[in-house]
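Sample entry (600 residues):
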Amino acid sequence: MTSTPTPTGSPIPLPPQASLDGHGRLLHEDDPAAQLALSLAGIEGCLAAAGLGPDDLASLRVTTVDHDRIGPVLDVLTERFAQTGARPLLTVEQVEQLTPPGLLVRLDGTACRPTGPAPTTPGTPGPLTRENPMTTTTHRTEPDHTAPDHTALLGAAPGRVHLPGTPEYDAARVPWNLAVDQRPAAVATPHTVEEVVALVRTARRLGLRVAPQSTGHGAAPLQGRLAGSLLLRMHELTGVQVDGAARTARVVGGTTWAPVVRAAAEHGLTAAHGSAPDVGVVGYTLSGGMSFYGRQHGLAVNHVRAVELVTPDGRLVRCSATEETELFWAVRGAGGNLGVVVALEIDLLPHPDVHAGMLLWDASATDRVVSGWARWVQGLPESVTTSLRVMHFPPIPELPPFLSGRDVVVIDGAVLEGDAEASRLLSPLRDLAPELDTFGRVPAPALLDVHMDPPAPTPAGTAHAVLRHLDVAGAAAFARASLEPSGLMFTELRHVGGAFGRAPESAGALGSLAGDLVLHCVGVAPTPEAFAAVQRDSAAVLAAMRPWGVAGRSLTFTDEPGPQPGACADAFGAGAWARVAEVRRSVDPGGVMQASVEVG
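Predicted structure, serialized as tokens:
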């Protein structure tokens, strides 16, 4: 018996492979990485039996009953692809069950024969017609898909879609946080809203998820989870229009804060921006947004007037207080979980200038500065928003002399008062004799540079917690933890409370932030070992401050890898979390959208 040759270049289906022995018995129960590796070995065995190599693998489909467990270990596949030269288009589908019970994942796919039929031995069934004891039956939660067609995806936005194995792909997939190695099925950089619509529609038809991303500051939760996704980098779809009379701005989806603040300043206005000029407006704002105006003006998300987004089924929708009101409520907190945001309309703030700056001491003053600041913030009006950081700088020439190679403690922020009243409010801190004092009246755009965030993409690991006000013991614990030798670059306390803690009647799903302080740990992590050290040292600081912790979360600072389902629920009230989940199921029943911070 001989097999029928498959025409050159025609897709050859590969039989499903799973972590089973020759009798169909489950191997490696409860070990997703091992199940994935054994399934891939089966796929490679099928290729070899057909006279093909790994580089002939055209597509690979991962079928799983638990995407949250399989996603973090998909690097088993990508590392093997790198070793063998395979470049398949990878998709991931979730189903209700696989058999036998305990089976977490199954692989199947297609190959393309480059030169002709595979050799076969007479009397032996060909590899594509043999009976396979590893084949399983599933009950899908969404329709079965054939292997995605590269041509269809490339045609959705010509010149804007890049596939693995190309220099354009490797350049476009890199996020701002260089510690995160993003390896999506494809990456696109649209220039128009029409391209976004076409890309979302095509990705959905091909069974790919869609992960929108502007800058990638908070990319760590996506680590290892993009193998079946189109990464939609929005950083080239930008623009801002300011209406000075209405005190509003329309901000295009991939825009960062610097051009928005500059445009607003021309009208004597500013925005509830973050502490860095290169952070994306959409991701920051829809995840809450903590600005140095926040104790008086609240979370940035409460200044959103309208959202324009491409829904998971490829419709361009505008939502506001009078249009698509339930979607408007949910997207203010759920963001990219509900669609690709292509524009925001936001209210601007009437501050052409601001009393702002920083105070700096040598780290030897940490105890008295931390305890003094902890007492000082408890009696402040809401016009004052500051942060305190204990910072450790390497001795590198790129840093100014007052920072290079030093450990320092810094207080910075803004005082929304006249100069005389601002000076009076700051006097208890000045009594602590800082070696550097830059507080004074500055144009509003200068506030973007006060916090001294890294000016270029950086490999980093972070962690955070929400705290109540620190008593004497709490201030001492923070000072001690922040000075412990570690891999952290800085340990920060941001003063919140005030309007941060009040949700206006018009608020969306996320309208307020619990607690009095947000603790934020950041470390530079150029290697996996350094990243692990940052995680370890951050966990030690969080553990030391746990007695002062309160229930809550800042989505703006959520950037931990491997998030668990429901990990962000503590940023919302129970009722809001359930309502967001219901909106998400209604808008995206097929689970097309993949946000960095999973909500609902």
